[in-house]
């Protein structure tokens, strides 16, 4: 089952991230996919805020993983953008996925084969015909737990 | 070689490059061997994931041998070993840290831990001796920071990027333009041919702090390209590059000038991979004319990217201050300078 939400600006993307954060627990995995500038990092900033993390969330592109330990649960913000040509096997991703925090992965298509079975994938798509800041967020959960969470977030939003 | 001379064997493996160097007295590079992933990919006729992940391990012993041979020194001539222990990719950092610890242990040498960012700043020392207090503008693929150095070995962040690093923004808009990674050099080249015709927004330019933001600029750039695509119009790559670069350089230069007004220093140091950018170098040259009492020190071009020589330069300070690590030294992927007191992150 898929769930779609349309947002008209970056603030709404941020708010959705905040809302989702309240449902999440350690070992949860959120995949954020979409073009450059589609709102993935904005969404993560909202998620972090929702977890009670006050530090600024910077792009993890260069270091691939950034860790934030000061929220309700740890946040592991990962970006596979630089792994398009391989190299994921040296990062010990399993240890994060089975660890003590929430895992958020941008550009997850580059590490598809290293992903666990259950996750919530959110696909960000620009709606250029409507306006520069319009985006569609499509929630694609794998597993019962994430299906329930996706349903909650999307219904609450409507 | 005089017996008074200090020789440090230094290691750098925080990201894509594996590098080993021998540096004399923190000032003179005797050797600086750099092996990049790119070469190894070429050797194997393309990208092989296993090769990429083991690259640092494969390269490092050969790099040590080459660095010693090129410097014409032996382990017995060394006074210390130094290594970048963060920030960076944990797997990559560990290779350098382990190698450095092994050499230090085997040859009974003190081990100096170096912050990668401090290393970038100290690359300036190959151009001119650093005088304190100094201010550093550190711009690379992973960082965009203004760092105050009140005295040797002390680094305080006064401003940083709130989202993307400047170098990262270059690479990402390069991707949108269809340029190959890393795109910084090509964007810089195109920018010198084109004109700033698009007038992209200068984010944070008027705020009171010393922080930067490049994600809004990235979005504006992408929107411009998308709109053109939709109506089938082709934009001038040169003008796009020039407009983007002008926006980046304006923000970097304006915040740097503001910092120089707030903190009287003897030197402004420009360091990091993006310090090789000609547009930025030229602009800061121009701006520094209003600060005749501030010397402008640019890290030499060949030491702007990641390399072990800069690590050896910074390690000399640690050696003199005797800040040594023991065999418990670990990689710290999230290592950061502290913020200046009284400011918030």
UniProtKB/TrEMBL annotation, chain A:
Pfam families: TsaE. One of its GO terms (molecular function) is hydrolase activity. InterPro entries: P-loop_NTPase (IPR027417), T6A_TsaE (IPR003442). Keywords: ATP-binding, Cytoplasm, Hydrolase, Magnesium, Metal-binding, Nucleotide-binding, tRNA processing. Gene3D superfamilies: P-loop containing nucleotide triphosphate hydrolases. It is found in: Cytoplasm. Its main location: cytoplasm. One of its GO terms (cellular component) is cytoplasm. One of its GO terms (biological process) is tRNA threonylcarbamoyladenosine modification. Belongs to the TsaE family. PANTHER family: TRNA THREONYLCARBAMOYLADENOSINE BIOSYNTHESIS PROTEIN TSAE. This is tRNA threonylcarbamoyladenosine biosynthesis protein TsaE.
From TrEMBL, chain B:
Coiled coil: none annotated. It comes from the Bacteria. Its cofactor is Fe(2+). Fe cation binds at residues 116, 120, 306. Residues 28-312 form the Gcp-like domain. It catalyses: L-threonylcarbamoyladenylate + adenosine(37) in tRNA = N(6)-L-threonylcarbamoyladenosine(37) in tRNA + AMP + H(+). GO terms for biological process: tRNA threonylcarbamoyladenosine modification. GO terms for molecular function: iron ion binding; tRNA N(6)-L-threonylcarbamoyladenine synthase activity. Keywords: Acyltransferase, Cytoplasm, Iron, Metal-binding, Transferase, tRNA processing. It holds the Pfam family TsaD. Binds 1 Fe(2+) ion per subunit. One of its GO terms (cellular component) is cytoplasm. It is found in: Cytoplasm. InterPro entries: ATPase_NBD, Gcp-like_dom, KAE1/TsaD, Peptidase_M22_CS, TsaD. The keyword Metal-binding applies. Substrate binds at residues 138-142, 171, 184, 188, 277. Its EC number is 2.3.1.234. Belongs to the KAE1 / TsaD family. Required for the formation of a threonylcarbamoyl group on adenosine at position 37 (t(6)A37) in tRNAs that read codons beginning with adenine. Is involved in the transfer of the threonylcarbamoyl moiety of threonylcarbamoyl-AMP (TC-AMP) to the N6 group of A37, together with TsaE and TsaB. TsaD likely plays a direct catalytic role in this reaction. HAMAP family: TsaD. This is tRNA N6-adenosine threonylcarbamoyltransferase. It comes from Secundilactobacillus oryzae JCM 18671. The lineage of its organism: Bacteria, Bacillati, Bacillota, Bacilli, Lactobacillales.
């Amino acid at each position: 089952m898929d769930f779609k939400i349309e947002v008209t600006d970056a603030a709404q993307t941020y708010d959705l991230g905040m809302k989702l954060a309240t449902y999440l627990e350690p070992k949860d995995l959120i995949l954020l996919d979409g073009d450059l500038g589609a709102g993935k990092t904005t969404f993560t900033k909202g998620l972090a805020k929702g977890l009670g993390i006050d530090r600024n969330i910077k792009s993890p592109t260069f270091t691939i993983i950034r860790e934030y330990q000061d929220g309700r649960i740890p946040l592991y913000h990962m970006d596979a953008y630089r792994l398009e040509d391989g190299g994921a096997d040296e990062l010990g991703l399993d240890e994060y996925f089975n660890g003590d925090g929430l895992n958020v992965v941008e550009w997850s298509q580059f590490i598809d084969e290293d992903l666990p079975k259950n996750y919530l994938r959110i696909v960000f798509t620009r709606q250029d015909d409507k306006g520069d800041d319009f985006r569609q967020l499509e929630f694609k959960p794998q597993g019962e737990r994430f299906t329930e969470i996706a349903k909650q977030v999307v219904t609450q939003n409507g | 070689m005089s017996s008074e001379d200090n020789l440090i064997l230094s290691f750098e493996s925080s990201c894509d490059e594996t590098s080993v160097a021998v540096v004399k007295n923190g000032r003179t590079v005797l050797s600086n061997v750099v092996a990049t992933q790119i070469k190894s990919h070429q050797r194997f006729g393309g990208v092989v994931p296993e090769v990429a992940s083991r690259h640092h391990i494969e390269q490092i012993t050969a790099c040590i041998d080459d660095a010693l041979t090129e410097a014409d020194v032996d382990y017995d001539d060394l006074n210390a070993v130094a290594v970048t222990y963060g920030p960076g990719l944990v797997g990559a950092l560990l290779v350098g840290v382990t190698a450095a610890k092994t050499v230090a242990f085997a040859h009974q040498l003190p081990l100096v831990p170096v912050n990668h960012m401090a290393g970038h700043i100290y690359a300036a020392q190959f151009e001119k001796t650093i005088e304190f207090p100094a201010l550093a503008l550190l711009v690379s693929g992973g960082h965009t920071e203004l760092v105050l150095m009140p005295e040797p070995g002390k680094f305080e962040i006064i401003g940083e990027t709130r989202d993307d690093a400047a170098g990262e923004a270059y690479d990402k808009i390069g991707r949108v333009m269809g340029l190959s990674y890393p795109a910084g050099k090509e964007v810089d080249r195109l920018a010198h041919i084109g004109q700033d015709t698009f007038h992209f927004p200068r984010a944070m330019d008027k705020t009171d702090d010393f922080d930067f933001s490049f994600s809004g600029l990235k979005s504006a750039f992408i929107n411009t390209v998308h709109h053109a695509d939709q109506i089938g119009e082709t934009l001038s790559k040169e003008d796009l590059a020039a407009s983007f670069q002008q926006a980046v350089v304006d923000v970097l230069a304006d915040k740097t000038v503001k910092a120089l007004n707030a903190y009287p220093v003897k030197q402004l140091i420009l360091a990091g991979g993006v310090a090789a950018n000609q547009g930025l170098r030229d602009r800061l040259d121009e701006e520094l004319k209003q600060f005749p009492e501030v010397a402008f020190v640019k890290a030499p071009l060949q030491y702007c990217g990641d390399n072990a020589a800069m690590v050896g330069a910074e390690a000399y300070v640690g050696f003199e201050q005797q800040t040594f690590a023991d065999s418990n030294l670990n990689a710290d992927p999230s290592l950061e300078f502290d913020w200046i007191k009284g400011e918030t992150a």
